[in-house]
Every structure is written in structure tokens, then in C-alpha cells.
Write a structure and sequence with these properties.
It is built from nine helices and no strands. The protein starts with a helix and ends with a helix. The chain is mainly alpha-helical and 242 residues long.
Length: 242
């Protein structure tokens, strides 16, 4: 269990440092900034790389919503959900701390400007409302879990699961960065929010509630579909045997 928690800590640290780091350090770099597309790719590549590096140890969740969604789908034991979430949040805070040290080495750095924190209303990149942010985070996390649960299914080519999951996260960011700066991950939201404080902490509740709600919904839908599929296949199996 300890090795799993260490893997979740490191993987979530890498996700925050790579994804949020690309937004804070590289997105708007003069003349050669990577922009929204580059930041989206950075988040996807961070998950993809750690899925292969540490996935064999912990399953490669790196996200409290993923752990909750897998539990809801019957694919993860309930007694491991809380320890995983603690390790993920700790990793996210550590990743944000490293990023803060790096970013503060530049004259004029102002953490209150955002620090890749998630927000809605006046703190949404596109000034989208609370309702827009809520729907976006629920739906995008739902879709993310659908991809994860399908990619790791025994009937799927699981050696390609990390690629599908990483590309799904890239797509999610391409769509939703303008709305909320993209969370779909409560740990990723918590790390930067602790350093921004003020409005980021005030709005953090949404980026716990919405992603976990979307993940739980995806998990329950997945479990229901599996039961329906089993019921549909059972008569065919019985008929074939008779």
C-alpha cells in the first residue's frame, strides 16, 4: 500500500508541475509561447507519461475524481479511496510548491494573477458563469471517466490505455480551459488554490463537487451497462449450451 501511495503522490506532483507549469511558465512566453493548445497537450502528456511510469504500481489515478469513479464502477476498493485522495492532494500541493519556487524567481511575478488556479465568473478565463462552470466540470469529468473505464476494460487493448486517457485529457482541456481553466481533478485545483488564496480558495468547492459528481455518475453508468450487457449475453450462452 505504501508503494501505491508514493506512486500517486509522485504522479499527481508531476501532473500539477507539468500541466500548471506549462500554463504559468510557458503559455504566454514572448514570441514562442505554447498557448492554449500547448497547455492542453502538457496536461495530457503528464498523465500519459505517468500512466506508463507508475500505473503498474498504483493504477495511475492521480486524481480524487478518478479514484471515486473507479470505486463507483466497482473497480476500486472503498478502503483505499481516502488514502489515495490524501496522497494525491499532497502530491498536488508539492507540485504547486515547486512551481511557486520556480515562478517566483522572475521579477514581477504575482501569484494573485491566477497561478493556473481554476475559477468561474470574474475568475473564469472567458468570464463564464457558475452554472457554465458546473456543467462543464461535471460533463467533462463524466467523459473522462467513461474513457478511463473503457480503456482499462479487460476486452480493450490495455497496453494503449495510457494513450487514450492522455489524449482524452488533452481534448478536455482544449474545450474547457476558457470556461474554468479546466479542473476535472480536485487535487490539481487544490494545489494552486492554496498559493493563490483569496478567491481561489473561495471557489475551490466547485472543483471538488463537480468533478466527483461527474465521476460517480460515470462509475454508476458503467456498472449498470455491465449488468445489462451480462443480462443480454446470458440467454445467448444458455441457448448455445442447450
Amino acid at each position: 500500500m505504501v508503494s501505491k501511495l508514493i506512486a500517486e503522490f509522485i504522479g499527481t506532483l508531476w501532473l500539477v508541475l507539468g500541466g500548471c507549469g506549462s500554463a504559468v511558465l510557458a503559455a504566454n512566453f514572448p514570441d514562442v509561447g505554447i498557448g492554449l493548445t500547448g497547455v492542453s497537450l502538457a496536461f495530457g502528456l503528464a498523465v500519459l507519461s505517468m500512466a506508463y511510469a507508475l500505473g503498474p504500481i498504483s493504477g495511475g489515478h492521480f486524481n480524487p475524481a478518478v479514484s471515486c469513479g473507479l470505486w463507483a464502477a466497482g473497480r476500486f476498493p472503498a478502503n483505499q479511496v481516502a488514502p489515495y485522495i490524501v496522497a494525491q492532494v499532497a502530491g498536488a500541493v508539492a507540485g504547486a510548491a515547486i512551481l511557486f519556487v520556480i515562478a517566483s524567481g522572475k521579477a514581477g511575478f504575482d501569484v494573485s494573477a491566477g497561478f493556473a488556479a481554476n475559477g468561474y465568473g470574474e475568475h473564469s478565463p472567458g468570464k463564464y458563469s457558475l452554472a457554465s462552470a458546473l456543467v462543464t466540470e461535471v460533463v467533462m469529468t463524466f467523459g473522462f471517466l467513461v474513457v478511463i473505464l473503457g480503456a482499462i476494460h479487460r476486452r480493450a487493448p490495455v497496453e494503449f490505455a495510457g494513450i487514450a486517457i492522455g489524449l482524452a485529457l488533452t481534448l478536455i482541456h482544449l474545450v474547457s480551459i476558457p470556461v474554468t481553466n479546466t479542473s476535472v481533478n480536485p487535487a490539481r485545483s487544490t494545489g494552486p488554490a492554496l498559493f493563490v488564496g483569496d478567491w481561489a480558495l473561495g471557489q475551490l468547492w466547485l472543483f471538488w463537487v463537480a468533478p466527483i459528481a461527474g465521476a460517480l455518475l460515470a462509475g454508476w453508468v458503467s456498472r449498470t451497462l455491465r449488468k445489462l450487457l451480462h443480462a443480454e449475453l446470458e440467454p445467448a450462452v444458455d441457448g448455445g449450451e442447450s
